[in-house]
Amino acid sequence: MNSQNKAFGFIQDHHLQLLPVILLVAVAMTILSESFMTSQNMINLANRVSINLIIASGMTLLITSEGIDLSVGSTVGLSAVGAAIYFQNGWDASFGPYGAIVFGVAVGAAIGLVNGILVALIGLPAFIATLGTMLAVRGLVFITSSGRTIMGFDPRFIEVFSGFTFGIPRAVIVAGLTALVAAYVLNKTTTGRLLQGLGGNERCLYTAGIRVKRLKLGSYVMMGMLAGLAGLTLAASMSAAEPFAGSWYELDAIAVVVMGGTALTGGRGTVMGTVLGAILLGLVANSIILLGISAYYQTFVVGLMILVAIVMGSPVLTGARAN
Amino acid sequence: MKNILTASKICKQYAGTRALNEVDFEIGEGEILGLIGENGAGKSTLMRILCGIEQPTSGDIVMHGKPVEFSGPQAAQAEGIAMIPQEVLLVDELTVVENIFLGHEESGAFGLSKRQMLADTRAILAELDSQQVDPEHLTGNLPKGSQQMVAIARRVMQGGDVFVMDEPTASLTGEETQSLFKLLKKLKGEGKASVFISHRLEEMLEICDRIVVLRDGEHVGNFINDDTLTKDKLVAAMVGSAVANEFARTVSHIGELMLETDKVVISTFQGRKTHPISIQAHAGEVVGITGLAGVGKTELAHVLSGLRPVVEGELRLRGRPITLRSPVDALKNKIGLVSEDRRAEGLVLELTALANMTLTSLKKLSRLGRIEKDRERQLGLLMKDKLNMRTEYLGRDANHLSGGNQQKVVIIRQLCSEAEVLLLDEPTKGIDIGAKAEVYRLIGDLVAEQKAAILFSSEPQEVLGVCDKLYVLTSHGFLGPYAKGALDYAGLMALEFGTATSDTPMEAAE
């Protein structure tokens, strides 16, 4: 009994509640589907999870501070198209193939800055402001790409994000590093502490003399840059930039953050929970395809998972807090 | 005269404290009754019970000759009790006429009878001499006084036998107050009664037929308002024989002049300008700012901490003029606010007590942005010893601490960030006696370390006992400084209620 309690405590302290579910699904799928434990499937799965996780890591910090960004999916699209245009216009001749990375991230930062100005300086509700930029930026994607898929990336650029290091896909490495940095910032740094404070009681931080506006502005720029990075990873993995690239990614990201146990009301967040949430979401989507179930069920199942997580989360998952 | 309402032996017990003790209370037909008492005497509690917002612990209420029990505000309303609360409750986004008829819309065969409602609104506003208020204007855009008039109009329109008003004149101009009194007299003519709470004794003497005095939850006086009744008699009844509590505190060395306001005019939450305020706070000194509710104490604390702008005049720190555009500037100048509302403003409830303590001193506890948790904990341990807090509380969420411990955490935050001027707005509100004593001791320790403390409090006992020097904010002027001992309880009350003028200036301040 005592050791059981200990194990339960360990799981709570480290936000590992989703781990048993993940293991269960993985074991079941290994038995049910021959193509599950193949390297090709694992790479597909890893790519999908990674791109979501890059965004969701940033979204964890943002939601912990009681912010939200609905424009990240569109930013993914614009960053991908931006990188494609970089090569199309031959800018790599002057700035090299890796300049596209800087360009894509800068595009994301610029959109983040616009969001930050709208939310932090003008004071619009984040939900409304980023809904506006979500549509406007998607429009920009259509305009700049003329609605067509653009190819022609430099192989060296593609290699950065879709190669392997020690047999691990680069996308996984990028996402893993992003999540590590996000966890470090949230739990170990001044910024993370203040983001939790901001989500808990903005008025308290303001009256105490904390530069609340600058903190908020910074968090949206950070979110934009990560969405830009996710866009580059996506473009490299497809070797193409589609005008619809990144659609719905904002909802996937928010979904895994909530499933992981971060409180939508702010003040409490867990990157570990988000990592597990992203893995579980990717796993379930992959399983549905492998089992030959209609893809239409995927959206339905994801919706159910979010609802279950929120209901279960009231005492169990959201009760978990960052140390 | 027939009684509309008779309440007998009303008791109200809150956890640990008795707010009302066997209070008898009656209201006759066509009577305008005044209810007075100092802060915490039980006026509002009694009103809330009569209006069904709270239920008495024991006691009976008889209305129109039959016993009643008000299970909620609707029940009281159904019996004819109409309450006009202190805070104006209107929907800003609706027009005046929509607000007045909200939930009681008049309708004809073809939907709402807008023309009828408009005419009725104009009529009631005219009775309140508020013709300048456009009934089709959005309520949110009206000045505070007009909003209050609309709220009163709304309540009168809905009818009732007893109108209960808690400080209705606080946000009204002199003219508006007179219009309200005209309306009260008209209601009186119709046989309807009014109960009226106000701190302004001259208003009470002007309009009330009878004045009831409460003190410490007891009914201590019942005065028929005839020519012999004076403000002094009322103040004497409110004060009784109470004396100021002494809080033993070693008097510290008075150091250099820290924060100073030079004829500073501020605007209150009601949008009224105060008289020019000139205070001086020295290192090693506890300065008290006191006054009745609504005179601008909290607003002054907000001005000194950068939350509200200065309207006129100058702020100086160590003789140097300063401008506080936001709390960021206040923190830079080492001025720290301990706000009145701990839960809404003072704490992040989701963070631990320790994290709340170090919220504004993270910079010095971190290297390259990384919080050095050992050093943070060391600082926390040092601080909790100063306050007799148990070590385990440091790791507990602020939400799960008692009010007293929460207050300590907020004050410790100022110690951690090395604030040199502390603004304490009602620091002992809602905490128990033991915790109060600790907070006073802490304030004493702070000034012993040559910090300046400014205590904003409406508790006379507290400011008289704790402060080295006292200023009194009133609606008729800014008074002080008074040295410790220069004022006693009755003297302070007389100043606050305007029965004495400032003729005891402080001479031996330094």
Structure explained in plain terms:
- The complex is a heterodimer of chains A (323) and B (510).
- Chain A is mainly α and 323 residues long.
- Chain A contains 15 helices and two strands.
- Chain A has a single domain, classed as ABC transporter involved in vitamin B12 uptake, BtuC (Orthogonal Bundle).
- A two-stranded antiparallel ribbon of chain A has the order 1-2.
- The C terminus of chain A is likely disordered.
- Chain B folds into three domains: 237 residues, P-loop containing nucleotide triphosphate hydrolases (Rossmann fold, 3-Layer(aba) Sandwich), CATH 3.40.50; 175 residues, P-loop containing nucleotide triphosphate hydrolases (Rossmann fold, 3-Layer(aba) Sandwich); 76 residues, no CATH class.
- Chain B is 32% helix and 25% strand.
- Chain B contains 17 helices and 24 strands.
- In chain B, helix 8 packs across helix 17 and helix 14 packs parallel to helix 15.
- Chain B is globular.
- Chains A and B meet through helix 10 and helix 11 of A and helix 10, helix 11 and strand 20 of B.
